[in-house]
Amino acid sequence: MSTVHCNTVQTSSGGAVTLTKQSASKAWINIDMINAVTNDSFNSSGITDVSTGVFRDHLSTSLANGDYAVTTSAMDPTKTASGGTNRTADGTPSSASQFVMRASAYDNTANDVPAAAGVAHGDLA
Q1: End-to-end CA distance of the chain
Q2: Is position 63 within any domain?
């Protein structure tokens, strides 16, 4: 068995390595829904504020199809009643180029929260 030791893996032209057919995250985003800003992201070209508590993340590089897994989370540390999220909040299912994040209170009332995040796992197109 061989062991590879390195500090950086790059393509032969010096760019980032493209991961395909692997389970590594292909996109992630951390947003502030209250101010409608992206705090940090990977493979995101921007967000759309759809309605209270509902945002779309537009992917810079599309995934192979809309059947990938998305994990989302949201919280408002100032409220004890802030709750879960889901990915098809406005009736628009995820597509190869975007996914939906919705934040809601425990009673399912949509709320904009200061900390919401989404991660997509699937194959790149």
Answers
A1: 33
A2: yes
